[in-house]
Amino acid sequence: MPRWIAELSGYHGPSYLAVADAIENAIRDGVLKTGSRLPPQRLLADFLGLHVNTVNRAMRVTALRGLTVGTTRRGTIVLG
Predict the structure, then answer these.
(1) How confident is the prediction for the chain on average, in pLDDT?
(2) How many Å from the N-terminal Cα to the C-terminal Cα in the chain?
(3) For 21-39, how does the pLDDT look when each residue is reduced to its tens digit (9 = 90+)?
(4) Residue 16: its H or E element
(5) Cα(43)–Cα(39) distance, integer angstroms
(6) What DSSP assignment string belongs to 24-76?
(7) Residues 54, 20 contacting (CB under 8 angstroms)
(8) d(Cα 55, Cα 43) in Å, to the nearest integer?
């Protein structure tokens, strides 16, 4: 099981923004630290009951916000 999974029960609106906001909140709250790896997008989608494209879109939003960076082979890394 992954170390961190987004909790989306309190969010309203588009799922991809809910995931992106959950990641941002986890970083702000110190749950996800700089250099942490997020679960693979496919695994995260399975646990959240979302399509992998929705999670992929959320990761693009977090990258645009300057919160994460996606790397080949290492996955999505938290920038802080």
Answers:
(1) 90
(2) 23
(3) 999 999 999 999 999 999 9
(4) helix 15-28
(5) 7
(6) HHHHHTTSS-TTPBPPPHHHHHHHHT--HHHHHHHHHHHHHTTSEEEETTTEE
(7) no
(8) 10
pTM of the entire predicted model: 0.88
Domain ranges of the chain: 15-78
Fold of 15-78: Arc Repressor Mutant, subunit A (1.10.10)
Quick one: tokens of 59? 């990761």
Q: Rounded CA gap, 59 and 76, in Å?
A: 8
Amino acid at position 3, single letter: R
Distance separating alpha carbons of residues 31 and 21, to the nearest angstrom? 13
Q: How far is the C-alpha of 55 from the C-alpha of 44, rounded, in Å?
A: 7
Whether the per-residue pLDDT at 1 is higher than 50: the answer is no
